[in-house]
Amino acid sequence: MYNFRNDYSQGAHGDILNRIVQNNYEVNPGYGLDMHCMKAHNLIENELGRSDVDIHFISGGTQTNLLAAAAFLKPYQSIIAIETAHILDNETGAIEATGHKIIEVKGVNGKLPTSRIDEVMRAYGSEAKTQPKMVYITNATETGTLYTLKELQEISEKCKEYGLLLYLDGARLAVALTAETNDISLKDIANYCDAFFIGGTKNGLIIGEALVIVNDSLKPGFRYMYKQRGAMLAKGFFMGSQFEALFENGLFYKLGRHANEMAKKLADGLVSAGVELYEKHYSNQIFILTSDEIIEKLKRDFLFEIMILPDGQKVVRFVTSWGTTEDEVDALIGFFEDVKNEK
């Protein structure tokens, strides 16, 4: 079977595994206080161009989002997010389990328009309702689109206007930063967000995300919440070793760029084979429209996801990753070329 279902199904990139093996018999302090976590911390600071941030290595994206909500918000405060946000429908109510409401608004091309923030703030002025306090965005988005620097700046300014926190989910940040049309850097994200995380699970690591806390007011006490929620690993040095390898020689960007290159090759090949793209391709997620008959044939040799639109139409999602090979891409393109030739 050829895997285009997601970007975390393979184990880990060889450089990551080699680093873990290399450090395996060392004796290190636990709970993220080891030399590898410290070195990874410094390497990420260099990418951000600043040394005034706190960085915590956490096992996965849902755990990171849950911790951020639990630590950064008071019990009566809520989060603004669009209808396709990962925290809404893909985290089993993790945010709500912390006691915080998610205020769902309509996005545009998978992104949050600043006008939606205005609408929420007008509607939530009463103490009988929760107090909106955090704006949640993702880059790349759940529909594969990308925020521009201008859009990030505008959202940041709008958050400052209302005293809101801006939090960015970076599960697929590597593909966002290496996409052809991207004009945002890690430095920009650190300059405009109060907190964000750098995804590793979907970019060649075994497990691990790096939560970056920029806003000084959010830093105190975070490790207490980190421990209380069961996220602080005794063997935290394994995550430190992985991020050390990821940022030491540009591997973070190399793996994201590879996923994008494979996606571009796939998207171009599918269009040449007469496949209708549901949305314009930007990063490592490609969405197509096709028939139920073709979907059933696809299932014989390929793994992928299916979305059901409100009108019942099915959209197929293909995802490329750091480990996707050209042979796999050629096989998928070849399938649709065969379908085209049969017509």
Can you walk through the features of this model?
It is a single chain. The chain contains 14 helices and 13 strands. It has 343 residues and is an alpha/beta fold. It has two domains: 2-6 and 252-342, Aspartate Aminotransferase, domain 1, CATH 3.90.1150; 14-250, Aspartate Aminotransferase, domain 2 (3-Layer(aba) Sandwich). The chain has a seven-stranded mixed sheet with strand order 2-8-7-6-5-3-4, with helices on both faces. The protein has a four-stranded antiparallel sheet with strand order 9-10-13-12, covered by helices on one side. The protein is globular. The mean pLDDT is 95.
Name the features:
343 residues, Aspartate Aminotransferase, domain 1, 14 helices, Aspartate Aminotransferase, domain 2, globular, four-stranded antiparallel beta sheet, alpha/beta, seven-stranded mixed beta sheet
Number of separate strands: 13
CATH C-level name of the largest domain: Alpha Beta
Radius of gyration: 21 Å
Q: Treating each run of at least 4 consecutive H or I residues as one helix, how many helices? A: 14
The SSE string, one letter per element, is EHHEHEHHEHEHEHHEEHHHEEHEEEH
- In CATH, the homologous superfamily of the largest domain goes by the name Type I PLP-dependent aspartate aminotransferase-like (Major domain)
State the helicity in percent bands. 40-55%
Q: In this structure, how is the largest beta sheet organized? A: 7 strands, mixed
Unreliable segments of 5+ consecutive residues: none
